[in-house]
Structure formats: C-alpha cells, structure tokens
# Entry
Amino acid sequence: MEGKRKPIAKVCKSTTEGSEVMILTVTLNPALDKNYVVENFALSGIHRVESMSTIPAGKGVNVSRVLQQLQIPTKATGILGGHTGKLIQSLLDEEKVANDFVWIRAESRCSILIVDEVKQVHTEVIEPGPTIPQGAIGRLNRKLEQLATQSSWVVFSGSPPPDTTPQIYYNMIKLVKKSGVKVALDTRGPWLKTGIKAQPDLIKPNWDEFQELVGPCYSTVQAFEKAKALVDQGIETVVVSMGSKGALAVHGNKSYQISNLPPIEVVSPVGSGDSLVAGLLATLQRGGDFPEAFCNGVAIATSNAAHFGAGVFTFEEVASLQKKISIEKIPF
Ligand SMILES: Nc1ncnc2c1ncn2[C@@H]1O[C@H](COP(=O)(O)OP(=O)(O)OP(=O)(O)O)[C@@H](O)[C@H]1O
Ligand SMILES: [Mg+2]
# Structure
C-alpha cells in the first residue's frame, strides 16, 4: 500500500499560483447529449420521459467540464458545426467551460442516453457526426499549434467521425509535441493504434479498448505485462480503466492497481473514463505525484458513475471515496 495521500478536497482547492497554463482538450466529434430518464424502457411502444437534461458532450468536452469544476484552467477545442454546434457552444459558455472551436457548415451530432432506473440499464443511441472537411483539419492544426504553446497538456479524446483517417491523432500529436507540451490520448481502434506511434505521454483505454490494441488479456497480470510493453515503447503512463473493477496503471517503471472500489449506487457510468483522465491530470498539474493523481482520478470517475450526466460529481462524495480507495503497488 502507498503512504498517506492528500484528500481530494485539498488537492482540488490547493493553489493554482504561478501558472495560468491550461489543459487543452480536443474533441473532433462533440455531441449534444439528450439524457432521458424513462421507467421500464423497452424496444417498442411509446415511452414518456420523466426527467431529462440536454448537455454538451464528447470526450474532451467532458474532460474540460471536470477540470473547470476543479478550477484548473482549461479550454475545449475541436470541431463544431451548424445549429447543434451553436447550441453546444452556448451551453458550454453557460457552464463557464472556455472554448475555442473550428467551425464547419455540417451539423454537429446528437446522442440520446436513456436511463431506466427501474431495470437499472442504460441505452445509448449515438449519431456518427459530420465528415470533417480537409480545410477544417488545416484550420484546427493551426489553432492547436497556437494553443499548445499556452498549455501543459493537450488531451485528445474520443473517436473522430467514422471516415476519418487513422493518422489524424498521430499527426496532431506530432504537431503539438513540437512545443514541448505533454499529450494524453484517450481513444479506441485505429486512432489509438496509429496515435500511439507518435508517443503520447499518457493513454487511458478502457478494458475493451486496451484489448483491441494489445490483444486479449486473460488476467490482470497479462494486462500489466502488455501495458509495460507499451511503456517500454515510450509512452510514460498507461492507465487501463475497468469500470466497476477499478483500474490499473503502469507509470514509468512502477505498476499500480485500484480494485475493490467502495460500493456506489450506479446511475450512469458515461463519462467516467473522461472524469478519470481529468482528475488525474488536475492532480499532476497541481504538483501531485502519480499514485495520488491516479487515486483522485478514480475517485472522481467513481463519483461520476453515481450521477446522471458526463463529468458530474460532488466534492463530498469524492472526498469520502478518496478515503476509502486503496492503491496497491504491484511488484513487477
Ligand atoms: N459501474 C461502476 N461502478 C463503480 N465505478 C465505476 C463504474 N463504472 C465506472 N466506474 C469508475 O470510472 C472509471 C472509468 O470507467 P470505465 O472503465 O467504464 O471508463 P470508460 O469506458 O473509458 O468511460 P467513458 O469512455 O464513458 O468516459 C473506473 O475505473 C471506475 O473508477
Ligand atoms: Mg473512455
């Protein structure tokens, strides 16, 4: 077990003195999330919505939402389009999440999340999102080059629209790394496989995404071995999140695991991985060490799973979870 850690409240409310350096998040395919609570949802019939919320989403946007609540300077960038894009932007403004997107004509996408608290299931219907025109990628690249110089981390999160080249994150990571910024990559499939060749500093696949990258893992020991192999290839930190089973991490030559999460009443785990990334980077930004950052990330992620909406948590719950979460140092 690791030594004593600062409670999250302290980490989150400690200083930002000296640095207005921000954490930049990049979302190539943001969405307007419509979250519906429906009792006894089924595949046919008419369902009346009991309560609902409309929130701007997309993985990077979720990361920025959490960072903003933790009072870490952040800016969300990426691609927005059409009326849906305008609504996403104005809702972000309302939330005081600073943003600076490249605009296209085509409509940004909508996603529908149906939470059924009776059956305890959630169902997502996700639009693919607009194709990104080449010119918009050029404009985004120029914006990234400029914003990276004001950032400590650039976080590339989520899947681009389906017909986007697998090279897209690889190219962008190479571009921003020229300014010396650190890079986190949280994506899946071909974008992750190609993106890691640009050596991001941190990746955070979930269990399925990780196995898609490295092949099947039949135990956490095997997962640690495969994560270590990625670290040997030049990625400093590999965090693999495993939903209710917690997460494992290899950071440099050290390996950690958080299992036995305190029981919570799961409402919606959507955005939990994004919350983990945000909590982890926020703690590092405030000068915390990796085990502390990993614990804080997992505590915020777990609180997110207990709430409706992506990047939604309470400080009280996080503080309480943080006291109960134990991190194990894995001796290999
Ligand atoms: N059902 C759950 N119960 C408790 N904690 C959870 C649950 N689901 C997620 N979490 C917390 O959130 C973290 C990240 O979850 P998960 O592995 O599901 O991320 P993810 O699939 O990347 O999510 P997303 O991409 O939607 O943000 C976990 O390590 C855990 O701390
Ligand atoms: Mg994820």
The chain has one domain: 8-330. The domain at 8-330 is CATH 3.40.1190.20 (UDP-N-acetylmuramoyl-L-alanine:D-glutamate ligase).
